[in-house]
Amino acid sequence: MRPLVSIIMGSTSDMPVMKQAAEFLEMMEIPFEINALSAHRVPHRVMEFAEGAAGRGVKVIIAGAGGAAHLPGVIAAYTPLPVIGVPINSSNSIDGWDSLLSILQMPSGIPVATVALDGAKNAAILAVQMLALSDDALMEKVKAFKADLASKIAKANDELAEIKYKYKTN
Questions:
Q1: Which among 28, 101, 120, 143 is placed 20 to 30 Å from 136, CA to CA?
Q2: What's the pTM?
């Protein structure tokens, strides 16, 4: 089985956040790989990975990083594949702002789709939506996932309707 999505993180300390992406891909039955690569400690390996990912069958890369968070941008510079950046509020982050801005503020021509701080699950959802564009069965799974989200809100409103207040109008 070849990976369709590659989950990359700056170090294994990012795994508590990035596992959210792995868990969603697992639930959707999407083959994926997980690796730690550092844009600063092993830049040559990052380049080799990024340049070779498409040739190995990878379709989307999810890259999480904290602190200066150059990893997603460096990967995007070396690959034609879509890269989804996950800014991580890590131990060397300034409340996550440095990570967020490092990933978000890419120069023209090197886009990185950026999700919320520690938003690895949303990165995986976006990756699956990208893959579903050319896979009808996967699109049905995405639609079912979205319908489940909607049903949870409907259930929540039903529960809220049961709460009584003197001046509550619904």
A1: 120
A2: 0.94
